[in-house]
Amino acid sequence: MSEGATVSESAFIEVDRVEKVFDVRRRTGFLRRELRRVRAVDSISFTVARGEMVGYIGPNGAGKSTTIKMLTGILTPSGGRLRVAGIDPSRERTRLAHRIGVVFGQRTTLWWDLPLIDSYRLMHRMYRIPDGRYRENLDRLVELLDLSALLEVPVRQLSLGQRMRGDIAAALLHDPEVLYLDEPTIGLDVVSKGRVREFLRELNTERGTTVLLTTHDLQDIEQLCSRVMVIDHGRLVYDGALAGLHEAGESERTLVVDLARELPPVDVGEAARVVKVDGPRQWLAFPAAASAAPLVARIAAEYPLVDLSVREPDIEAVIAKMLYSTGDAPQVPSDREASRETVVPAPGNS
Ligand SMILES: Nc1ncnc2c1ncn2[C@@H]1O[C@H](COP(=O)(O)OP(=O)(O)OP(=O)(O)O)[C@@H](O)[C@H]1O
Question: Which region ranges are annotated with the description Disordered (predicted)?
Answer without folding.
Answer: 327-350
